[in-house]
Amino acid sequence: MDAGSLISPDVLARYAGDAAREVEGVAGLAAGPLHRGGGVSVSGEPGALAIRVHLVLEWGRSAAEVGWAVQRRVAEYLERMASVRPASVDVVVDAIAPPPPIRS
Questions:
Q1: Residue 102 lies in a domain
Q2: What is the pLDDT at residue 19?
Q3: Which of the residues 3, 13, 30, 62 could staple to 83 if both were Cys, CB 3.0 to 4.6 A apart?
Q4: For the chain, what is the mean pLDDT?
Q5: Residue 71: what pLDDT?
Q6: Is residue 78 part of a domain?
Q7: Does position 93 have pLDDT exceeding 70, yes or no?
Q8: How far from the centroid of its chain's Cα atoms is residue 55's Cα?
Q9: What's the alpha-carbon Rg for the chain, to the nearest Å?
C-alpha cells in the first residue's frame, strides 16, 4: 500500500503549504473560495497526486524563479515527510504583495 493513500489530502495540503511558505520570495499563500484549504489543493489518486499552490509573490521577485523553487521544495518536502512524490506541482501567482514602505 502506498503511503500517500494513508495520508489525508488535507494533511498533504498543509505540508505543501508549509514547504511553499519557506521559499524565499513567497509572501504567503492566497486563500480564496475556490481553494479554501489555505491556498493549496490536492487532487488525483495515490501515486498520481496533483498539487496546486496559490501564492502571493513578494514585490520585485521573479514569478518564474520563485515558482520553480516552490515546485522543487514542495516535491522534496512531501517525499521526505509523507513518502509521497507528486506527479505535478502547479504554482499559481494570485497576487503580488505591495512594495515595502520607503524609508526616509
A1: no
A2: 97
A3: 3
A4: 89
A5: 98
A6: yes
A7: yes
A8: 7
A9: 14
Which residues, 6 or more positions from 84, have their beta carbon under 8 angstroms from its beta carbon? 2, 3, 4, 7, 12, 46, 49, 78
Its domain, for residue 91, covers 3-96
End-to-end CA distance of the chain: 60
Tell me the CATH number at 54. Answer: 3.30.70.1350
21's CB contacts (< 8 A; 6+ apart) are 28, 29
Q: 34: number of CA atoms within 13 Å, CB side?
A: 5
Question: Long-range contacts for 36-39 (Cβ within 8 Å, ≥24 apart)?
Answer: 37/10, 37/13, 38/13, 38/14, 39/94
Domain membership of residue 103 (yes or no) is no
pLDDT band of 41, cuts 50, 70, 90: very high
User: DSSP state, 98?
Assistant: P
Residue 69 lies in a domain: yes
